[in-house]
Amino acid sequence: MIRDAARDGRAILLTTQLLDEAEALCDRLALVRAGTIAAAGTLAELRARARPLLRMTLAFAQSGPDAAAALAGWPCEERVESEGEWRLTVTGSENEWIARVAELAARHPLSRFELSGADLEQIFVEIYGGHSPTGVAS
Predict the structure, then answer these.
(1) What residue ranges define each of the domains in the chain, with the CATH number in brackets?
(2) What's the mean per-residue pLDDT of the chain?
(3) DSSP run (H or E) holding 39
(4) Could you tell me the end-to-end alpha-carbon distance of the chain, in angstroms, rounded to an integer?
(5) Which of 12, 42, 60, 98 sits at 20 to 30 Å (Cα–Cα) from 26?
């Protein structure tokens, strides 16, 4: 219903503490805490204000200790392995990480690779230092 109204040219003001909902529905965002807007803009603009966090998912064509060991030396903010799939949060440029993954894939073929910018929750934590949101508006 919200998307339909926006497509019809209506301006919508949405307040929510559900950051994934705000990210999915809003064109512009404002991060509010204690009645003060700490950051506002598009998701891309908010990403630019935070550290250059990237989310990466990869899976090896053949999992094993060698493949896992290859990731062990990578500088990661977060590294989680689940059912043969690795989810990493890293800092740096997309080009740097794509080159690193290409080198890895030459030695350990991949069955899956995804790279994306930080989500709104990660951006929020960067801006507020881990405190809970009091609202997100668009």
Answers:
(1) 2-48+130-137 (no CATH), 51-117 (3.30.70.1150)
(2) 85
(3) strand 36-41
(4) 15
(5) 98
